[in-house]
Amino acid sequence: MQLPDIFETRQVKAFRDALMAGDLEQAKKIEDHLLAEAATSPEDREVLADQLRAAMLFRAYTDASGAGDEATALVFRGLLETMCSPKTVETTLMSGLLYAGLQQGSLPAEHHDRLTEWMGRADVGDAMREHLQGITRVP
User: Fold this and answer.
1) C-alpha span between 84 and 112 (Å, rounded)
2) According to the 3-state scheme, what is the secondary structure of 29-43?
3) Which among 21, 41, 50, 129 is placed 20 to 30 Å from 102, CA to CA?
4) What is the CA radius of gyration of the chain?
């Protein structure tokens, strides 16, 4: 899937490129710039920083995986799991499963069950639960 060429997409690519080059200072500058646009309090900033970092790393992970570069995908998956809170990592991965299920119309039983279990204990709205019901569980 091709993302639109907009500010946010370009920033995610720049963040990914900075991480791949080992330029953590540049990655942090990009993150700070994006957060300055969105955060309304220090607490809000911390939550948004974690979510933003997870979203950017997940996108880089899926891009690398989709391109068949499993070594790079594993690097980004490792960064996701070490740089973000466990709750945010889980929420990001479950959102990815939900998106994949909606795109494909089905999920393997293992993924469908994991997503169902997560939704049972997470604070998700009725609309998300309805989306899940529309995804076929493939044994």
Assistant:
1) 24
2) HHHHHHHHHHCCCHH
3) 50
4) 16
What own/partner pairs with CB < 8 Å and gap ≥ 24 does 43-51 have? Answer: 50/84, 50/85, 50/88, 51/88, 51/92
Cα–Cα distance, 124 to 58 (Å, whole number): 20
CB-CB contact of 11 with 29 (8 Å): no
d(CA 10, CA 135): 31
Is the pLDDT higher at 109 or at 32?
109
Q: Report which residue type is found at 86.
A: P
> Residues 45-74: what's their mean pLDDT?
91
> Which residues have CB under 8 Å from 21's CB, separation 6+?
none
| Residue 25, C-beta contacts closer than 8 angstroms, at least 6 positions apart | none
Place of tokens 């920033």: 11
